[in-house]
């Protein structure tokens, strides 16, 4: 039976927190299909997944596979999904009950429309005990609310505001139409997930609710600064896949083109700043080679990415410039509250 929404939970050694995630998603009832994807865990993750699948077979399925990383788990979820819509919720995150109800109500209504919705956008909240005030990402003033719209209706996205995996619910067929396949054994694949399908998205709906609760602050998380430095090669790989996905200058919508260029500016800035934070000559050379490869492939794109505010700030010349770039990064980190 086709479900309204499939939610995939990639799990790797998630025994300590996955049940909180699962239980928050079960509040959606039998309209929701929950896929617990055990990505080769060595703890009790498989046992917990099997127990939930056995106790709630009408709602939950357990999928077990050899370890392939977050991307392989998302790929498995897309392949197995029976829902008309698809969302990823990481095993250490959860969703807000009130907002969840609003999401399902609106998806249900939108499926009855003659024009199919390709993507729903919601807000997310950073959950971190270190934050005195809850911080999050919303799109008020940037996206029309509570109605179908196209890229031409999108307003200006503020710097630092962009749509992440946590924000997005895709129509499942969109992910299959674009043949989205995330690389295995690689971190930061959520950037690909939030970028490549956009060229296939025509009709969107923004629901201004704080739906996704994004836990941040564990030392083993991929967004931990030390881990990002250790995985700079993976960050650069993800950046390169996004650059190679399609030519942004050929996108038919001017608004979509502008959004994608801004997104690429953000991601290339992240790659640059991680190289700067490392500070080793090897990683500084990787940064230089990365930018040279962009210039050789598309000089127009190179100029666009380097001349933007963030691109300029993260590519100041010389040792003094590098120190200034890192200082600007730490200021932004404190002000925005990201990790």
Shape: globular
- Can you tell me the CATH topology of the largest domain? Spore Coat Polysaccharide Biosynthesis Protein SpsA, Chain A
CATH superfamily of the largest domain, by name, is Spore Coat Polysaccharide Biosynthesis Protein SpsA, Chain A
Instruction: Give the total of domains.
Output: 2
Contiguous low-pLDDT stretches (5 residues minimum) are: none
CATH class of the largest domain: Alpha Beta
Q: Beta fraction of the residues?
A: 15-25%
H/E series, N to C? EHEHEHEEHEEEEHHEHHHHHHH
Q: How many beta-strand elements?
A: 10
Number of contiguous helices: 13
Structural class: alpha/beta
At CATH level 2, the architecture of the largest domain is: Alpha-Beta Complex
Average pLDDT:
90
By oligomeric state, this entry counts as single chain
Computed CA radius of gyration, to the nearest angstrom = 20 Å
Distance between the termini: 41 Å
Main beta sheet strand tally, sense and closure: 10 strands, mixed
């Amino acid at each position: 039976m086709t479900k309204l929404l499939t939610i995939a939970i990639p799990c790797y050694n998630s025994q300590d927190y996955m049940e909180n995630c699962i239980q928050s998603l079960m509040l959606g009832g039998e309209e929701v299909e929950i896929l617990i994807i055990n990505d080769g865990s060595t703890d009790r993750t498989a046992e917990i997944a099997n127990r939930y699948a056995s106790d709630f077979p009408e709602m939950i399925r357990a999928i077990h596979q050899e370890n392939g990383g977050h991307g392989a788990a998302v790929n498995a979820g897309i392949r197995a999904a029976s829902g008309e819509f698809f969302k990823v919720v990481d095993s250490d995150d959860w969703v807000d009950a009130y907002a969840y109800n609003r999401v399902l109500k609106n998806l249900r209504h939108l499926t009855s429309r003659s024009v199919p919705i390709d993507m729903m956008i919601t807000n997310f909240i950073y959950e971190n005990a270190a934050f005195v005030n809850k911080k999050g990402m919303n799109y008020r003033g940037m996206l029309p609310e509570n109605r179908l719209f196209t890229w031409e209706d999108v307003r200006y996205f503020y710097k630092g505001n962009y749509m992440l995996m946590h924000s997005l619910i895709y129509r499942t067929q969109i992910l299959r139409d674009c043949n989205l396949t995330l690389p295995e054994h690689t971190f930061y694949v959520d950037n690909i997930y939030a970028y490549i399908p956009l060229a296939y998205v025509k009709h969107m709906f923004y629901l201004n609710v704080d739906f996704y609760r994004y836990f941040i602050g564990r030392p083993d998380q991929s967004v931990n600064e030390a881990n990002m430095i250790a995985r700079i090669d993976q960050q650069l790989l993800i950046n390169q896949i996004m650059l190679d996905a399609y030519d942004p200058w050929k996108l038919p919508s001017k608004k979509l083109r502008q959004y994608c260029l801004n997104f690429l500016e953000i991601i290339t800035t992240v790659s640059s700043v991680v190289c700067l934070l490392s500070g080793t000559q090897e990683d500084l050379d990787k940064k230089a080679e990365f930018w040279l490869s962009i210039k050789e492939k598309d000089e127009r794109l190179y100029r666009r990415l380097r001349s933007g505010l963030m691109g300029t700030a993260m590519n100041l010349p010389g040792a003094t410039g590098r120190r200034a770039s890192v200082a600007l990064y730490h200021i932004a980190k404190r002000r925005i509250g990201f990790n």
